[in-house]
Amino acid sequence: RWLQQHEYVEKLNMHGILSASAGQEQLLTELLVTHAKIPILIGELISVEIWKHKVFPVLCRLEDFKPRSTFPIYVVLHHEASIINLLETVFFYKEICESAEDSILDLIDYCHRKLTLLAARSTTAQAGTSAVPVPPQELQKQAETMEFEISLKALSVLRFIIDQVESLPLSALTRMLNTHNLPCLLVELVEHCPWSCWEAGKLKKFENGTWHVVPPEDQVKMTKLDGQVWLALLNLLLSPECQRKYRFDGFNKSQLLKLRAFLTDVLIDQLPNLVEMQRFLSYLAVTEPAPPKKDLILEQVPAIWDHILKKNSGKWEAIAKHQVKHAFSPTEEELKLQARRWAQTYSLDMMEALAPDKPRCRVCGVEAAKRCSRCRNEWYCTRACQVQHWQKHKPACNLMA
Predict the structure, then answer these.
(1) DSSP state of 194
(2) d(CA 85, CA 317)
């Protein structure tokens, strides 16, 4: 049942990406709102996160953990990434934010945890895969890689939530400003920029799922991730309601004023709205803002995280042992069945539609429109290139076919 649910989420995720690229995601958002699926997706997101932190470490220490167990565990690790990616696609819409209702508090907490990990990440660390063949270590490395990419998605989701702050429950803004102090956390991200690093004298940035070297002429260019942080800060700090509720004490004020060093003319040219933030920070530097207005304290608290932790307190090792026996030790037949289901979920046509780059000829590297009709794995620009490559391709083609 869980694997079937994951297939549904994965197909929704892929459909959401394709619909967004075509500008036709309205139908998907309407269905998610009508059938009240956003709170369910947030609940799954929280439950997988708890599983990763509580059950997964125990699982890797168990003696009867076998190499064969890695296949379904990869599915679980991927499930969180699929959900946050789907939420990133649809949370742009106001009605999606509103349909989350009280579960938005759990999502805000989730995003705060991910951004805290992102801020603590070394600026020289890069996402990558491990060459260690031992399954637990390999899985741990895979989990770290996915954690980094998921945190970047959480940044986008949080920015969309901040955009719709007026439509959220009353406690959402208080939680973002005073419980989690998101403005200062976002300043940390501006200051340390975990999606860029220097390696061998070259600046590298993480974009579209990979690290790439930035040419000198583009080093001052704002990336999408930089833009998400600045827009989130802009909407938080310049909102009258936020200014009324936020505590501009000595520490918070000093942290926010660090932003002035980054507000260069080059940056403002790329995002002109930052002129307003520059004015606000100049005003903040020479004045003492009024203390936050004290309202009647009647605050909602996130329920999903606490409910799962309380329900399963002290049971994590028993859960891990049960899952090793019943979920993560599949038979050969079960593995083949799962592999067939995954092959159907990830159809080649769907994956190609999601790919950012056009296929290239295997021989000459130019853009290709033809493919091997037998294995459907290699691309060619002309039949001449296909014939030329056939002797090299034949063994792999036979295997794939």
Answers:
(1) T
(2) 30
Nearest-angstrom CA–CA distance, 259 and 326: 52
- The overall longest dimension of the chain from CA atoms, in Å, is 77
> CA 115, 108, 79: angle at the middle one, nearest 5?
75
pLDDT digits (tens, 9 = 90+) for 27-79: 888 999 999 999 999 999 999 999 988 998 888 787 766 655 566 677 787 89
Whether the pLDDT of residue 122 is over 60: the answer is no
Higher pLDDT, 108 or 302: 108
Distance of CA 140 to the CA centre of its chain: 18
Instruction: Give the 3-state secondary structure of residue 326.
Output: helix
The SS3 of residue 325 is helix
Structure tokens at 33: 């709102």
Q: How far apart are CA 6 and CA 291, in angstroms?
A: 48
In whole angstroms, give the CA distance from residue 240 to residue 280. Answer: 12
Contact 279, 230 (CB under 8 A): no
> To which residue do tokens 């989730």 refer?
110
Q: Residue 235: which of 246, 250, 249 has the closest Cα? A: 246
Q: What are phi and psi of 10, to 5 degrees?
A: -65, -40
Distance CA 325, CA 359 (A): 42
In DSSP notation, 119-138 reads: HHS-TT---------SHHHH
| Structure confidence by residue, pLDDT tens digits, 161-218 | 999 888 887 788 889 998 999 999 999 999 999 999 888 889 999 988 888 899 988 8
CA distance from start to end of the chain: 31
Q: Rounded to an integer, what distance in angstroms lies between the CA atom of residue 266 and that of residue 287?
A: 27
**DSSP string spanning 338-400?**
HHHHHHHHS-HHHHHHH-SS--B-TTT-SB--EE-TTTS--EESSHHHHHHHHHHHHHHHHHH
